[in-house]
Amino acid sequence: MEERADVVIVGAGPVGGYLAQKLSSAGLDVLLLEEHLEIGRPFQCAGLVTPSAMTKVGLESSILSSVWGARIHSPKGNQVIVGNEGEIKTHVVCRKMFDQGIVAKAIEKGSRLWLDSQPISAEYIDDGIKIEVNRGGREVSVVASLLCGADGAHSWVRRYFKMGNSKEIMIGFQAEVVNYDGADGLLDMYTGENVAPGFFAWVIPSGKSWRVGVWSTVKDLNGRSCEELYYSLINHPLWKERFANSKEVSRYCGPLTSGVVSRPVKDRVALFGDAVGLCKPTTGGGIGPGFEQVDLMHEGLISAIKENKLSKSKLQVIAKPLKHMKKDQNRARILRNLYLSDCNDDELEETFATFAKPNVVEMINEVGDIEKPVTLGIKMLKEVPEFRKMAVSATWALLRGD
Ligand SMILES: Cc1cc2nc3c(=O)[nH]c(=O)nc-3n(C[C@H](O)[C@H](O)[C@H](O)COP(=O)(O)OP(=O)(O)OC[C@H]3O[C@@H](n4cnc5c(N)ncnc54)[C@H](O)[C@@H]3O)c2cc1C
Description:
Blueprint: E1 2-10, H1 14-25, E2 30-33, E3 48-49, H2 51-57, E4 63-67, E5 69-73, E6 79-83, E7 90-93, H3 95-108, E8 112-114, E9 117-125, E10 128-135, E11 138-149, H4 156-160, E12 168-178, E13 186-192, E14 196-206, E15 209-217, H5 218-221, H6 226-234, H7 240-243, E16 247-258, E17 265-266, E18 269-271, H8 287-307, H9 312-318, H10 321-341, H11 345-355, H12 358-367, H13 373-383, H14 385-400
Parallel strand pairs: 1-2, 1-11, 2-8, 5-13, 11-18
Antiparallel strand pairs: 3-7, 4-7, 5-6, 9-10, 10-11, 12-15, 12-16, 13-14, 14-15, 17-18
Helix pairs in contact: 1-3, 1-8, 10-13, 10-14, 13-14
């Protein structure tokens, strides 16, 4: 059997689904391949979706709660509250409803979806690319003009075409609990070597339950598992009261890739979302950046597909915005390392003492933007005397953007 499509997208996650919507809307024949039997499972996410990302897909019906601020805790328990009450910073969604809503819209626009389907191999043919697909146990050949990998952190497309690796791979672990003693509209962030080496742990209100999570890198974990960090958090002498009545209802873990890979496109092949390494180094969020990538590239792709001009050099021009995204990621990573990841607990205590000052909280509330953390990070380096000494070491790295 041989099928034809203009574009084959491997992975019907939020980014693959959003890409399929855009390409189908332009009249292209899009085939989405999804290895699972349903969309949106397994769930491996805290479900934070910023208002601007939500506007792009119009899936407000998937919102479980909305968050206006954060209570950030230092290793020794000092607390800083940031945010302006009533000003929503992020939504918390049911990922199953969110992902299914996106893919349903792609289908409405004309995309085809094959569940229980994975690519096995791919080869270039005259004027196209031929993909062998395992469709529910049957082998089917699909000939397409373009193959897109939106197949997540472990992307088959990225590995098959040797397109490089992300700079950082974080491991996330999360439990859904009921009866956490938190505050409505606020997410809690905990720091310190014990609970979140190099990063932070979170508790996010998600409607009737709470999402308790940790993330870190293999290097920072230094032999521990994320599950151990989670137990350190819920049994921590300073925080255990908040978890005293909580009951776990489910748990999950997954990888996050941060750092755009060195070869995001090849002849007739392009990577999107987690597959290309788009998660933010500061928060791990990958949905917003994935949508942004699609927004920045889809018009160029549509023309190139219609003209069947899909050489590596043509795709490199279309993928140019990824260079800027990579630069932004690098800057955000440098600032994250400076304020958080490279600090020991004593240094973090000092940073928190400065964060807690009213003028700094005011600055965070005025300039702070989950989407653009670099602006705030640089402003603090310039204007907060306590942080100025760090500016020297940051300056060269920021200028180089590496
Ligand atoms: C613990 C944790 C918490 C997170 N919290 C947030 C958050 O709050 N906000 C946020 O924005 N991001 C968060 N992320 C990151 C977020 O989950 C991803 O950035 C986002 O899902 C990326 O979307 P995607 O479509 O690129 O990839 P994915 O969502 O991974 O989708 C890829 C799809 O491809 C399918 N697939 C994979 N391989 C194949 C194959 N070979 N053949 C066919 N199909 C395949 C998968 O089944 C999946 O459906 C979190 C991640 C983790 C691990």
